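Entry for the shared binder. Reason: the reviewer on the internal report wants the predicted structure included alongside the sequence.
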Amino acid sequence: MKPAQNESSVYVRLLYEYWSIIPQHTAKESMHLFSIASSRYATLFYLYMHKETAMQPITIYTTGVCPYCQMAKTLLKQKGVTDTDINEIRIDTDPQTREQMMQRTGRRTVPQIYIGEVHVGGFDDLNALNQAGKLDALLAG
């Protein structure tokens, strides 16, 4: 049974409260303590706790009507990324940004996603990283 989106938020907040009560635990110890939790929740907690220092900057070139752009943002949100963590560049509102995207990526389609300085590619590439279990590490730096 897939948990509701709100359930993951509540779970992360509970983990945060635990972290606040027992601050002497290192991140590694806390991850071990919550090993019975799904890796998804443990990753959300780790990213939540280390957001300011560990989260890589995320840039997504998008358009307003692109379903793959929305799917990419949804996947990133499931990984604990918030809207404020994403530098979304709309290429449909400024022709100059489309040119910049094409020069930077060598591609014409959206979304084009960067995590840190790594060009991930489009949604299919992002999803493939997630399926291979490599997205969490890339997000964490």
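Summary line for the report: The chain has two domains: 5-50, 55-140.
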